[in-house]
Amino acid sequence: MRPYLLAASTALLxxxxxxxxxxxxxxxxxxxEPSSLHGEKALADIKVSPAAWPxxxxxxxxxxxxxxxxxxxxxxxxxxxxxxxxxARQAAAQAGAADAARAPTVNAGASVAGARxxxxxxxAPIGGKFTWTPYGYASFNWDLxxxxxxxxxxxxxxxxxxxxxxDAKAARILVSTNIARAYVQLGxxxxxxxxxxxxxxxxxxxxxxxxxRVAAGVDSQLQLKQDDGLVASAQQQVAVxxxxxxxxxxxxxxxxxQGPDRGxxxxxxxxxxALAIEAPDNLPADLVGRRADxxxxxxxxxxxxxxxTAAKAEFMxxxxxxxxxxxxxxxxxxxxxxxxxxxxxxxxISLPIFDGGRRRANLADVDAEYDIAxxxxxxxxxxxxxxxxxDLTGLGSLDTQIAAEQRAMDAASQxxxxxxQRYKAGxxxxxxxxxxxxxxxxxxxxxxxxxxxxxxxxxxxxQALGGGFNVAPTDMPNHDQS
Length: 482
Fold this sequence. Notes:
Elements: H1 2-17, E1 47-48, H2 65-77, H3 79-100, E2 105-116, E3 130-143, H4 149-215, H5 221-255, H6 260-264, E4 278-279, H7 292-313, E5 318-328, E6 341-345, E7 348-350, H8 358-424, H9 430-464
Parallel strand pairs: 1-4
Antiparallel strand pairs: 2-3, 3-5, 5-6, 5-7
């Protein structure tokens, strides 16, 4: 027997040496620490306040009840939210399936079959006779999961489910900010419409006066044709402004999940309140808990980490327990007798020896998936912090521009008042007053654009600061890199 034992031992040793190995495979991605991102110099002139984080219903601070109603409507009817919710439910179901795979399975079945075996193959009394064979069984199987691979697969699926749940919340923030921004554009479209109509009225009056002057021999046809061009241009700008109002209303209707007729019932927005320019006092560290997309990205890193653990467990020996018992008989009469009982107990151990590199390829794949998740998280973090800085400095620049434009508009308004006074006093002409009014309308148009940009950028800042999202510390992923 010794040669056989020696041969068996040698074969076992060679098998163990040739076992599939995960050696040399590991992820390379490293999470960026928020403290490594510096913005002290870029934000040196920005006021810092602990209360700068947006509240959940931040839109109420803009001071328009119609906007609040539209956002509440959109949060109920937007189709993108239904999609995000369905994806969250799907991911939760997949996590449930992964959890169920860890538990033992018990199955039962029964059948009855009738057959006649040929007597020239099997002699009587079995052959040559049609008989019924009832059969029933119950089975039990359990993978012991000694290395935690199935648990890691469940935790990976759970991490993806939590990411999808946070994605659904992020979708609501996106919808609310998109509605607010579309509402700002609607207000600006109305302001453009006012200026365009005023310019059409001004150019029409100017053309009328020029026509009178041409008839009196004071002005030439050249001046009249120039005024004709200005009237036509003003008419075109009115058409552009009218279409901008319609487009903004349609955009809002689409965000509400409604048809274009819903947009027609939206009234002209009231002037929206300007929001203060402030930054939270602990950027970017606290940003990680305030941005839904960052939290979702962290959960995907967590899920990928558990995926690596599950892939590594595939390289280890596995033990399963199995058992089956049942009844089978050549006829229904003897089915429940002791002679019809059968059973088996089948514990098993498996050891991966050679698989053509399948397990190593799978581990390399999940390592890359982890690196991708880390890179995506780092990208979101860097873009979020830089976006906040850009929005804050942009708002500061717009405030400076608005102040300068206000002075220009005040000067144009005063010039127009003086031109009217000169006309009424008989010193200047009404045509001169209309020419000065054109400068005032241009200033008003620039001011309307700057104010709309200011409010729109403040909404973008709210979105960059998380849109009122705030995660509890217990809901944050506790990542430990594999």
